[in-house]
Automatic annotation (TrEMBL):
Protein family per UniProt: Belongs to the methylglyoxal synthase family.
Binding site for substrate: 10, 14, 36-39, 57-58, 90
SUPFAM superfamilies: Methylglyoxal synthase-like (SSF52335)
Active site per UniProt: 63
Record carries keyword Lyase: yes
HAMAP family in UniProt: Methylglyoxal_synth (MF_00549)
Species: Roseibium porphyridii
Keywords associated with the record: Lyase
Protein name from the UniProt record: Methylglyoxal synthase
Molecular function in Gene Ontology: methylglyoxal synthase activity
SMART domains found in the cross-reference section: MGS (SM00851)
Enzyme Commission number(s) of this protein: 4.2.3.3
Gene name tied to this protein: mgsA
First-level EC class: lyase
PROSITE patterns: METHYLGLYOXAL_SYNTH, MGS
Length: 141
């Protein structure tokens, strides 16, 4: 079964996501893709051959839907082009998504150059994670 990979981009980074998706269309075709609403729409418009399911838009719960997928072991990788220069009404959701990706040791790329590396390493095998529930409270700091 193909690994599931999420594509998300803030508004200022959506053109970069479209460019990324076009450049890697062949590699992305190996994954079941999922995207937040607007990002997913832009990617599908540019690359209609890709298998991509759209969730809600980020500010309306899309980031939280992705977080739930991580917690349930239904997501294996996250490419999230974040905009660090604009205030976001749903900043807490963005942080929560990144937090869960970190808790579950999920491959996560936050900018195009890291996403290039992630896809290169995932090309042949699909994204691998332990998909085990991490121990909570094992670190004191
Ligand atoms: O806001 C987002 C991520 O935080 C992305 O949502 P959209 O893809 O719907 O714009």
């Amino acid at each position: 079964m193909p690994a599931t990979l999420a594509l998300v981009a803030h508004d200022a980074k959506k053109d970069a996501m479209v460019e990324f998706a076009k450049r890697h269309e062949d590699k992305l075709a190996a994954f079941d893709l999922v995207g937040t609403g607007t990002t997913g729409g832009r990617v599908l418009e540019a690359c209609p051959s890709l298998k991509l399911s759209r969730l809600k838009s980020g500010p309306l719960g899309g980031d939280q839907q992705l977080g739930a997928m991580i917690a349930e072991g239904k997501l294996q990788g996250l490419i999230f082009f974040v905009d660090p220069l604009s205030p976001m009404p749903h900043d807490v959701d963005v942080k929560a998504l990144m937090r869960l990706a970190t808790v579950y040791d999920m491959p996560m790329a936050l900018n195009p150059s890291t996403a290039d590396i992630l896809l290169r390493s995932a090309r042949l095998t699909g994204l691998q994670t332990t998909s085990e529930t991490p121990e909570v409270g094992s670190t004191a700091s």
